[in-house]
Amino acid sequence: MKVLLIYPPILLSKTDRPAITTPIGVAYVAAVAEKAGFSVSILDSLAEGEWKSEKLESDLYYWGLSYKEIKERIEALKPDLVGIGCQFTLQYMPSKEIARIVKEIDPKIVTVMGGTHSTVMCREILEKEPYIDYIVRSEGEYAFTDLLERLRDGRPIDDIDGFAYRKDGEVQLNEKTRFVANLDDLPFPARHLLRMDVYGNTELKRGWGINRRAPKANMITSRGCPFDCSFCGIALNTGKKMRGHSPEYVVAEIEELITKYGIREVHFEDDNLTLNKQRSKQIFDLIVERGLDISWAAPSGLAIWTFNDDVLEKMKASGCYRVNLGLESGSDHVLKKIIKKPITTSTIREKIALVKKHGLEITGFWVIGMPGETRAQMWETLDFASSLGLDDNQVAVALPYPGTELYDICKEKGYLAFNQKDEKSYEHFSISSALITTPDFTPLDVIAIRDAGRFFAIIKKEGRGAIPGRIVELFKRNGLGGFKVVGTVLKKYFGS
Ligand code: B12
Ligand code: SF4
After folding, report:
1. Residue 439 predicted with pLDDT over 90
2. What is the predicted pLDDT for the residue at 200?
3. Sheet order of strands, 361-368 included
């Protein structure tokens, strides 16, 4: 059976840029299927697309290979089954269209979807989309290969773990009960099926994130998170129990990256790289012991309560130069009662001082616009962020991703500022959007506060001379919404 896995294009708003990094999840699914004897190819239609976007009617921008090119690739390969990754909500529209194209080519080709968005929305998707035959829910390696084997052998598919399908026109959902117990049982992600040169070439020039050396590669050393931050949907995908590869597996994977692909920088994209201090220290020690010449960073964000002096020392010694920290808010009330993250503003200050002591660069991740938060608390966050002297601050607007506690709260209270029945709304789950409205704020208020905060941060860095240019840019970015941002800036500056 010939299998093609497709990582789809993405729809983004004007000011956003896509991340061009290896789709590790799809590559793990491919590796396990290949190990079981199937002939597998991967098409990363995001990375292989030309480095330009196309504006759509919806004002969004399409990044990746065109549908025509994707169709030609599928026709050339003649697969029996196409697996489509739907990791981000922003990929749903393209992934659905790919499924339609597959069935247009040949209705006998089986279509399977997997990834975070399709996991959470599996019932709605299967109810509406006849072109999608099956959905693998959450961690997908074993369920996907199980499906392939059953289809090949003509065995029933109705008891596959973590699986969604239709029976007599009704959608059936099998719960996910079995996560990979020992991650070391998995082969390395099938990077050999990816155009690794594409990621290599893009490194310092385009896409997401910062790196010091090139080429860089991303990897995952652990999965799952036991915490309950209300905006976060990570546990839906990889579970609440943290599972880690052994230090030996991790270091062997890095060695492969260096020798086979010439990689010089690694980005550990774990949810919580340092959650198990012992394991992470062993990884960092082994990198040093084996003399691996890499620089590394942790761009998905470390949880600050999971590292200490000792861990930081070993991080630095093994090549770490930058950490991104999920700090979220400058209001203790918001941290404790609304986001439910086990940190306070004073632990944030302490940990920042500790990281600085080790000479690591820091990016702070912040979030504003949570239900229950006031506009004053949003400014508390921006003022606090700017007082810490970090290398960079990224302020996100809270987005109510389906499946999260945040979504449930907003739904219950009528705070969702989009039409949930119109699936096109999901196109707007973009980093630049705001989709929550409460008695305290509208989506526009939050955007204006975020952009006003960004304006102050830039002027602080570049000086007052930058003000005229930045105001022009503000209007370019926000159109007439620029007036609202300028009003917010003035209000903050002169007080009200
Ligand atoms: C690494 C990461 C990134 C990386 C790289 C993504 C990549 N190319 O892989 C970067 C930093 C670029 C990134 C960016 C964003 N991210 Co991100 N990211 C993650 C993170 C932390 C880990 C993903 C991962 O590799 N997991 C490990 C692998 C093994 O799991 P996996 O990818 O999910 O794949 C498994 C299953 O889903 C399934 N599967 C996946 N694909 C397929 C396909 C088939 C056919 C099958 C059968 C199964 C299957 O099987 C896989 C193996 O078990 C997740 C959180 C998480 N734990 O999932 C968030 C997460 C995916 N990101 C998220 C978001 C929102 C974003 C952003 C859109 C916004 C933001 N926060 O800034 C941006 C997009 C930016 C852009 N402009 O393009 C959300 C997605 C929510 C949603 N519904 O859209 C997540 C879930 C985090 C969260 N906030 O809850 N991200
Ligand atoms: S935000 Fe970080 S610590 Fe909180 S639940 Fe998500 S992964 Fe865990």
Report:
1. yes
2. 61
3. 216-219, 265-268, 295-302, 320-328, 361-368, 392-397
Which residues 6+ apart lie within 8 Å of 463 measured at CB?
none
- pTM of structure: 0.96
Contact 140, 159 (CB under 8 A): no
To test the ligand 2 pocket, which listed residue (229, 274, 370) has its Cβ within 8 A of the most ligand atoms?
Answer: 229
pLDDT tens per residue across span 280-301: 999 999 999 999 999 999 998 8
Position 474 confidence tier, pLDDT thresholds 50, 70, 90: confident
For the CA atoms of 70, 423, 368, 374, the dihedral, rounded to the nearest 10 degrees, stands at 170
Query: Quick check: CB of 303 below 6 Å from ligand 2?
Result: yes
What atom in ligand 2 is closest to the CA of residue 328?
1
What is the helix, strand, coil percentage profile of the chain, to 5?
45, 20, 40
Domains of the chain: 2-174 (3.40.50.280), 200-441 (3.80.30.20)
DSSP label at residue 188? P
Distance CA(403)–CA(235), nearest Å, equals 10
pLDDT for 111-165, tens place per residue? Answer: 999 999 999 999 999 999 999 999 999 999 999 999 999 999 999 999 999 999 9
From 232, 302, 329, 335, mutation site for ligand 2 pocket: most ligand atoms within 8 A of C-beta: 232
Amino acid identity, residue 34? Answer: E
Helices 277-289/309-317 angle, 10° precision: 30
